[in-house]
Amino acid sequence: MSDRKRRREEREERRDKKRPKDAREEEKYQKHTVKLSQEVQKLKHVETFYEKPPPGLIKEDEEKPEDCIPDAPGNENARDFLAHAPTRGLWMPLGKEVKVMQCWRCKRYGHRTGDRECPFFIKGNQKLEHFRVAHEDPMYDIIRENKRNEKET
After folding, report:
1. Confidence band for 79, pLDDT divided at 50, 70 and 90
2. Using CA atoms, how far apart are residues 84 and 96, in angstroms rounded to an integer?
């Protein structure tokens, strides 16, 4: 006997075992399946009923991403960009990163303190800026020591 025939016979035997043997068992099986399908329909109805909003509900205005940025004269670009930015997915439109954050220095939205976009990026107290860079960059100390060693030799 070939493998195909053997597999087909095994499948038929399994089907025959699953089928009810007499009319009484078949009727019982049909009633049971009807009950189960009715219970499933009830559960589906309850789920859809609770998911839908009640009739006559007046929708409130949905929050838009640009609403988290105040409508101040310096924030038009950030608000406009967020208004048209994609809301789903993990992509960056036109290679521009979507940032909803406020700069501590200029108090504008769309960048952080220390970003090149900030108008106060180079302005301000140069000593404090130099100190900040030195403490933020771990390689700064190593590079400074290497320069000192080169001068000594």
Report:
1. confident
2. 12
